[in-house]
Automatic annotation (TrEMBL):
Residues in coiled coil: none
Gene3D superfamilies for this protein: alpha/beta hydrolase
Name assigned to this protein: Acetyl esterase/lipase
Membrane-spanning parts: 23-46, 52-72, 79-96, 116-139, 151-172
Record lineage: Bacteria, Bacillati, Actinomycetota, Actinomycetes, Propionibacteriales
Organism: Microlunatus soli
Keyword entries, A-Z: Hydrolase, Membrane, Transmembrane, Transmembrane helix
Length: 471
């Protein structure tokens, strides 16, 4: 008994010595960030898949117990529990989101609903817990002197700061600024939607993931005829943003720069039904997903035209930045390109009018763009020329395209002004109608103080364009 106690005591002393100092702070900070990110998304994960939610909840509980226990009393068992929980979460992420060998739906998609790397951040923190712990326990232990400990603390402080910041970022992005993932708990049936109010419906379910659409119906129908539809696709580089009108996702999507609130109200007043969608973000989803989802939204509107009281032959679309890119692709890309996937396959995804607000027309020609723009393109689409061409509206310019209205700020440093001018020329050269509006004083957004035309004048112009194009 005495020998066993001495051996156990020596083991505990050795374990505590190995964990002394910044090691425990780094591992526990990473664990806290990863645990909280999963916890924020757990209600939405529960709505997607109860087996995945239960599995993640169990792993979070194991990791949390190990973390609290290790902080209170350093022993091998709680450290092992923390590593097991973290490794299990990281493995589930790798198998579902990266390898895609587990059954759908992807349980980490709610963490990606506002920022497409939310799942990556969470998994990265969990991997850091595992790597930090295993490496430290395996390395030979030496008792450092006071100077060595001070140098170690100074060297580790930047890493600890980065870990803490990544943990905060992981939690904030997973919860869309603590509002919860952008997957609604409830949606209305398509029938009997209240006039003059916003209603959220599920428009498609790719891979078992419900995608929300906000529908804004006019208070009073302008005529007894079915209404035209204006579909809004938010921006954010295909990586960030959501359809919601407030919170982190709204700021990242740039709704103000797309004149969304003013256009929604003016279009409703003119008898239009306005629809606004979320779509799956990259790189948490395949690069084809944003356009495939937008096409599914158009097909949904046609499939439910009678219930919604809309005219399936009068659907227009607008969007800004990456949303403008997707809007242009909706106007140009036919079914042969392979993006028409999922539900309502018997319906067309064609639109009858496009408003492109500073959307990049050719993402294959951004080699000389700024470092931030190049980084966003690399994260969202990768560096394959084939993929870049496939997501470039300029690749699909054709005869018979719908009318385009292109709005572009002259000071835009993210989407080059000359590319938009060339895109409008190409559309007209193919026999189409393309109106190019250069906005003096505007950058990457159409709400700059003192710009000409002003935001209200641009709103008027867009409404006139939709009324003329869609009747």
């Amino acid at each position: 008994m005495l020998v066993s106690a001495d051996a156990g005591g020596m083991e505990n002393v050795e374990t505590r010595r190995r964990w002394r100092g910044p090691l425990l702070a780094i591992a526990s900070s990473a664990a806290i960030g990863g645990i909280l990110a999963i916890a924020v998304g757990l209600p939405a994960i529960w709505r997607l898949s109860r087996p995945y939610a239960v599995t993640l909840a169990l792993l979070v509980v194991i990791e949390s117990i190990g973390l609290v226990w290790a902080l209170a009393r350093v022993r091998r068992l709680p450290i092992g529990m923390m590593v097991v929980g973290a490794a299990g979460i990281a493995a589930l992420w790798a198998l579902s989101e990266e390898c895609r060998i587990l059954p759908a739906p992807d349980p980490f998609l709610p963490l990606n609903s506002t920022v497409g790397i939310g799942g990556w951040l969470c998994a990265g923190l969990q991997l850091l817990v595992v790597a930090t712990t295993v490496i430290r326990l395996v390395l030979p232990m030496r008792t450092p002197g006071r100077s060595a400990r001070l140098i170690g603390l100074m060297a580790t402080a930047p890493l600890l700061t980065v870990v803490v910041l990544l943990g905060i970022l992981s939690v904030v992005t997973a919860g869309s600024g603590f509002r919860g993932p952008s997957i609604p708990a409830t949606t209305r049936p398509v029938t009997m939607l209240p006039a003059g109010r916003r209603s959220t419906v599920e428009y498609c379910r790719p891979g078992g993931v419900p995608l929300p659409m906000d529908l804004y119906l006019p208070r009073v129908a302008a005529t007894s005829d079915p209404a035209p539809v204006a579909l809004y696709v938010h921006g954010g580089g295909l990586v960030i943003g959501d359809r919601r009108t407030s919170g982190l996702g709204a700021q990242l999507a740039g709704h103000d720069g797309a004149l969304f609130i003013g256009l929604q109200r003016r279009l409703n007043a003119s008898g239009f039904v306005v629809a606004s969608i979320d779509y799956r973000l990259t790189p948490g989803s395949d690069w084809r997903a944003p356009l495939s989802d937008a096409k599914c939204a158009v097909r949904f509107l046609r499939a439910h035209a009678d219930e919604l009281g809309v005219d399936p032959s009068r659907i227009g679309v607008w969007g800004s930045s990456a949303g403008g890119q997707l809007a242009s692709l909706l106007g140009l890309v036919g079914p042969s390109a392979g993006f028409d996937r999922g539900q309502y396959a018997d319906r067309s995804s064609a639109v009858q009018a496009v408003v492109d607000m500073f959307g990049p027309p050719d993402v294959a020609r951004y080699g000389d763009a700024g470092p931030f723009v190049r980084m966003i393109l690399s994260v969202s689409l990768g560096d394959s020329p084939r993929v870049r061409r496939a997501m470039s509206p300029a690749s699909y310019v054709r005869t018979g395209a719908p009318p385009f209205l292109i709005l572009q700020g002259r000071r835009d440093s993210a989407v080059l002004f000359d590319l938009s001018v060339g895109f409008s020329h190409a559309l007209r050269a193919a026999g189409g109608s393309a109106t190019m509006v250069a906005v003096d004083g505007a950058g990457h957004g159409l709400d700059a103080p003192g710009q000409r035309p002003s935001p209200s004048e641009l709103t008027d112009q867009v409404v006139r364009f939709f009324r003329t194009s869609l009747g």
